[in-house]
């Protein structure tokens, strides 16, 4: 009987100890990807970058600086200083503009005219500050593809 009481007390103490530690504060590397690329009337591009926070705590995204390549051709740099707080395990959109290289313009124009997808690569950094932490710089390297959006001329998603 005494052993049963001792076991019950040990379980109670262990249970209370687990409650005292609080939720886990995990900081994971964020990522960025192009959600939408729009060709502007002046030939420039507007890119909606999806910033994804995989951390268990909110993070404030202070700067995005990535090189964009389209179909293997350097297009230019996308930079933004959004000062945007993204909740834990969430995402938000940042818009950046770009005056693309001639080669990249031709690759996008060809993809739009042919109704085909085009590969892209983002490479650079994101500076973010975890909730109640210090600012950190995260390396970004992302490869994916964009396809023409039906019914939206000049738009790839």
UniProtKB/TrEMBL annotation:
Keywords: Signal. Residues 49-130 form the Late embryogenesis abundant protein LEA-2 subgroup domain. It holds the Pfam family LEA_2. Residues 1-20 form the signal peptide. The keyword Transmembrane does not apply. This is Late embryogenesis abundant protein LEA-2 subgroup domain-containing protein.
């Amino acid at each position: 009987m005494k052993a049963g009481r001792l076991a019950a007390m040990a379980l109670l103490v262990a249970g209370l100890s687990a409650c005292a530690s609080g939720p886990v504060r995990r900081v994971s590397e964020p990522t960025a990807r192009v959600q939408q690329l729009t060709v502007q009337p002046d030939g420039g591009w507007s890119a909606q970058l999806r910033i994804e926070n995989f951390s268990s705590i909110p993070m404030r995204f202070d700067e995005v600086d990535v090189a964009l390549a389209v179909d293997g051709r350097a297009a230019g740099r996308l930079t933004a200083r959004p000062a945007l707080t993204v909740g834990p395990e969430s995402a938000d959109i940042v818009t950046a503009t770009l005056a693309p290289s001639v080669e990249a313009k031709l690759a996008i124009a060809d993809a739009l005219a042919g109704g085909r997808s085009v590969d892209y690569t983002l490479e650079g950094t994101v500076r973010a500050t975890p909730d109640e932490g210090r600012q950190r710089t995260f390396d970004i390297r992302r490869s994916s593809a964009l396809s023409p959006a039906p019914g939206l001329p000049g738009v790839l998603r």
